[in-house]
Every structure is written in C-alpha cells, then in structure tokens.
Amino acid sequence: MSASQALRQKQAPIKDGYRSDPSSAVVTLKSTGSLDDHSITCKLSDGPAVKEAHRVAGLHQKAGGDDPAISGELCSGDMLLDALVACSGVTLKAVATALGIPIASGTVTAEGDLDFKGTLGVDRTAPVGMTGIRLEFAVKFGEREDGREVSEEEVEKLGKLTERYCVVLQTLVHKPTIAVRLAGSGGGKEGEGVSREVSHKSEF
C-alpha cells in the first residue's frame, strides 16, 4: 500500500464522522506558559508530546495523526499558540520590569478554535484555520519596597503596552504580506524544474 493510499484509508472514517456529526470536527487547542519573579522569561508547559530536545510537527489526531503521547509529534496549531504564549509572556515581563511593576508569578493561556472540516476538505464552506483566539494573563503581583500596591492605571498600561509590543500578537492582528514559493525538481524532470509563487497582501 502506498503512503497516499494509507493516508486516505486512515482519514476516510474520520471524514465520514465529521459529515455525520459536523460538531465533532470543532476543537479548541490550548497552550499555557508560566511567569516567575526572577527572569524575563515565559516557560511553556510541556505537553506529553514533548519528549525530545527538538520538535517534530505532524498531523493532529483529528486529522489522522498518531497519538502525540506516543509519536512525540506536535500539532502546528498548538505550536502557533505556543509562540503566542511565549512572546506575550516575555513581553509582559519586559514591560512590567520597565514600568517597575513587580510580578511574583503568573500564567499565560492561549486558546484557539479550529474546525477540521475545513483543512480536511470535508466542507468547502468551513474555514481553514483558527476562527477565534483567546489570550489570558493571570498575574500575581509582588510587593514593593515602599509598600505601594499596583494600581488599576498601572494594570491598564501594562496590558496596553504588552499588546502593542508583542510581535506574535501584532502579526496575528495585522496580517503581514506573505510570499509563498513552492519549487520542485527531480522526479524525472530535467532542467530547473517547476515552481509556483503567490503573495498575500498585508493589512498594515
């Protein structure tokens, strides 16, 4: 059996399930990170799939992938949320440090809603990609030497500046210009091979 036949065979019952029960294709992916009081970092919570020093991306189970706890393969959607959690967490700590706002500990959580009917081609009207992302910070403030509490105005400023200077968040909010190029050679073809190029315009 060829690789393409094996994949189709594996995905067929999954697609049939989504056709009979469309709601079963909708999932919420989640990523979490933690903040501490001694570094400008955000530690991502390692899921059961992270077994190696390097990360390998594979199909999500809802798209026919293997159990990540066994395969060690990560869903790229989870990795996207990981990037958002990591970037926003580090940005929050950097901004808080610059403003003199003490953070004792904290948790950063990102959730993304995804309908697998779209990426599997089960329903052409279903969106391909996340339709909603939620980012939440739960922070415990530390004590200041002068005893002053963190004010609502400071929290408002901390939130605004974190949003403004988080690279990944701003990339998601304002779609950048993306150039995609696919180039292929070999497979019996001679010369320069074949290629495809497309550009998606920016919203900046």
From TrEMBL:
Q: Which domain of life is it from?
A: Eukaryota
The cross-references to InterPro entries, in alphabetical order and at most eight, read: KH_dom-like_a/b (IPR015946), OsmC/Ohr_fam (IPR003718), OsmC/Ohr_hydroprdx_reductase (IPR052924), OsmC/Ohrsf (IPR036102)
Segments of this protein annotated with the region Disordered: 1-24, 184-204
Composition bias (Basic and acidic residues) maps to 189-204
Q: Indicate what this protein is called per its UniProt record.
A: OsmC family protein
Q: Which organism is it from?
A: Alternaria tenuissima
Q: What is the lineage of its organism?
A: Eukaryota, Fungi, Dikarya, Ascomycota, Pezizomycotina
